[in-house]
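FAQ

Q: What does a record look like?
A: Structure on top, sequence underneath. For example:
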């Protein structure tokens, strides 16, 4: 009788242990399925963010490459004007000088970047969804450099404002022919020589132009640095998307 009771207890114990094991296995499977589901959701969310970042930074690449091209043209024309103002302006045509003033000295370019996806990531606290640490670091550095570059932008613009003040009284002679015709400003070509000569002999204008041109050269270098970051960010985003 005692042996029978012991056998029943052992059978019950084995049954209970088996039930516990099944419950534990069930819980582990459920946790694994939940973990897999969360990982999948995270991957899908990361993929959407990567696609959005690629769209933003492709646009940024186009904008900054256009800005760099225009800035480099502006610098070349400004340098031509500086050379003329320091040498013999009589050897250069009035039309060339006017062109260098309007398209070089009076020009100012700056790329406006698309940062909506990154801003949303930071503000929502979802930057951690991006698994690539190098990508997160590059994005952070890119945004920091955008912020730090505004000082040069503002200083360059301040030089341009002062130059425009100096040349304000001869603006009629500087603007493009099409603009002058549109505004109904008809001026004889013979009337151009004196006001243009007056401008290129202005030492204050020359000083401001030299300062602005040097600063624009630094700004191009700065833009080239940002372009490097953009290319690296695009490369990393596309690599991560290739893994999805």
């Amino acid at each position: 009788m005692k042996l029978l009771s012991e056998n029943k207890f052992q059978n019950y114990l084995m049954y209970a242990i088996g039930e516990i094991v099944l419950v534990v296995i069930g819980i582990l499977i459920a946790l694994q399925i939940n973990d897999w589901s969360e990982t999948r959701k995270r991957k899908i969310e990361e993929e959407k963010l990567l696609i959005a970042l690629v769209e933003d930074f492709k646009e940024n690449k186009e904008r900054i490459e256009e800005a760099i091209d225009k800035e480099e043209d502006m610098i070349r024309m400004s340098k031509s004007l500086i050379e003329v103002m320091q040498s013999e302006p009589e050897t250069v045509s009035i039309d060339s000088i006017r062109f260098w003033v309007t398209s070089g000295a009076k020009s100012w370019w700056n790329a406006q970047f698309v940062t909506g996806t990154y801003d949303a990531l930071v503000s929502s606290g979802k930057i951690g969804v991006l698994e690539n640490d190098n990508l997160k670091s590059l994005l952070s550095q890119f945004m920091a450099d955008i912020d730090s570059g505004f000082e040069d932008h503002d200083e360059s613009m301040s030089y341009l404002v002062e130059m425009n003040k100096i040349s304000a009284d001869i603006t009629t002679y500087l603007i493009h022919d099409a603009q002058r015709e549109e505004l109904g400003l008809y001026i004889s070509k013979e009337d151009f020589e004196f006001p243009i000569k007056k401008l290129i002999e202005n030492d204050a204008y020359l000083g401001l132009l030299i300062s602005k041109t040097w600063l624009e050269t630094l700004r191009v270098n700065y833009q080239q640095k940002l372009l490097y970051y953009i290319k690296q960010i695009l490369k990393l985003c596309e690599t991560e998307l290739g893994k999805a």
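Q: Is there anything notable about this one?
A: The chain has a mean pLDDT of 83.
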